[in-house]
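Structure ticket #2291
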Amino acid sequence: MSDLRLEELSAKTIVAANTLTLKPGQEQYVAPVSHSIAEAYVNPTSAWPRVVLDGDEVVGFIMGQFDPDNDHEELRSCIWRINVSADAQGQGVGRFAVHSLATEARNRGFERLTVIYEPGDDGPESFFTHVGFEVIGETPYGEHLAALTIAPSPHDDEA
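Resolution: structure written out below.
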């Protein structure tokens, strides 16, 4: 997995993104990519859908939202979805996707990135903790709200 890169979701990559397979038990924790595609179509100004490619193969999908005017502060810069192919899990694909989204958030002036997820044995909590998210709250539905503090760009002081 040394040739990882992000690309905008496109007609060329949409089918592969929509057919990413997860490990058994993970399906209950993440909505299908098709839901993200629909959301991105409905919210084109705030949605940020991207596929992760290893060479020419789609190995992951991430969708963020950047909405600085959102009434809910925790939804201004957040991860809506992240899916990594079962075969590519544990190889840095998810970390690459999250760090890429965090870089985009920083470039847009945000100081943190949030995610809401359901805790559980096969859920994503250990992944999010591993990449630096800390639980900062809980939704009324028992989901965890976690945040990743984004370090300012070294070039921010040069302005």
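Closing remark: The longest helix spans residues 93-107.
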